[in-house]
Amino acid sequence: MSEATHMPGRSFPGALLFAILAPALAFGQTNPLWTESKVHNYLPHMTWPEVEAFLERSDMVILPVGSVEQHGLHLPLGTDYLNGVERAKLVAQRADVLVAPILIPGQSPYHMEFPGTITLSAETIQRVYVEAAQSLIRHGFKRFLILNAHGGNRAICQFIVDRINQETEGIAVDLGSAASPYLQGQTERQERPEDPLELDRHAGVGETANSLFLIPTLVQQELAVPATITMPEHLESMVPQVLAGDPAATTVFLAEGLKAGETGKGTSAREMSTTGVWGVRDPKDASAEDGRFETERFVDAAVRFIERWRELRPAGG
């Protein structure tokens, strides 16, 4: 190899690369980019004896299901995957369940016009998760909590749950749906008067707030700008009804909104948004405090459901 060290799209002279790494190497350190610490109940960090010991306490495992897709100018492509895994980790610290991330990408065809997005077929995704569950069942895991972190995976996750229940010895539930009843009655933070009633979905203020709490070092808030949204006229006319909570309008709106360009609906992310954000609010309005509230609210509800499941069916029963 020549004096230059080659990487896709760029090259570093050997002397420059050595200068970058030399300070770390001089002090006997290893990989200078490694910053991760061992997390309790997180499968990628565990040894097999630790998993064996865990199975003496619990037979529950959370499988986060995320995506790799554009999230505007300010959030990373891995937002859904990373936020889902971090939420699962927080649940696992309180409920003593295992967290087993299986796949990074999900189903995201409507974001494919933005560079970096990766989309997999529904068939591929469900097959990988079911086969992973079968592996874990062989080791002694019995109960699976499917944690969907990306709206485009909703139907796939329902199918994964059904396949585990119908085809294996395992028992699966959708954790978002199971935890939902336990979210009711929590009124610590009511909707604030200053919160505008505006479209705020993909990569908007809500998702940015969650990311500021869960993955703060990856949010480039200084790059966030309001998006200009263009929708087919009939969908735009539905927005006020969707925001008002009309269930029929919401169902119809989401059936057409955010669909791949190849469908001809005119609602892919690139067709509707100048930045990739599906919302008109300024993501700079997001706060880590709001993200903390929403995250803790979900974690509390998830833990309450898990504790109730253990009461109804103790491990080994």
Which fold name corresponds to the CATH topology of one domain? Answer: Rossmann fold
* Topology, number of strands: 6
Trace the largest sheet across and list its strands.
Answer: 4-3-5-6
The average pLDDT value, as a whole number, equals: 91
Largest sheet properties:
4 strands, parallel
Structural class: alpha/beta
Note the beta-strand portion.
5-15%
Radius of gyration: 22 Å
Looking at the structure, what is the overall shape? globular
CATH architect. name of one domain = 3-Layer(aba) Sandwich
Low-confidence stretches: 1-5
End-to-end distance = 61 Å
SSE ordering: EEHHEHEHEHEHHHHHH
CATH class of one domain: Alpha Beta
Topology:
Elements: E1 4-7, E2 10-13, H1 14-26, H2 48-54, E3 60-65, H3 79-95, E4 98-99, H4 122-139, E5 143-148, H5 154-167, E6 171-174, H6 175-179, H7 205-214, H8 233-243, H9 247-256, H10 269-272, H11 288-312
Parallel strand pairs: 3-4, 3-5, 5-6
Antiparallel strand pairs: 1-2
Outline the structure in words.
This protein has helices spanning 14-26, 48-54, 79-95, 122-139, 154-167, 175-179, 205-214, 233-243, 247-256, 269-272, 288-312; strands spanning 4-7, 10-13, 60-65, 98-99, 143-148, 171-174. With 317 residues, the protein is α/β, with parallel strands linked by helices. It has a domain at 43-190 and 295-312: Creatininase (Rossmann fold, 3-Layer(aba) Sandwich), CATH 3.40.50.10310. The strands form two sheets. It has a four-stranded parallel beta sheet with strand order 4-3-5-6. Helix 4 (122-139) packs across helix 5 and helix 8 crosses helix 9 (247-256).
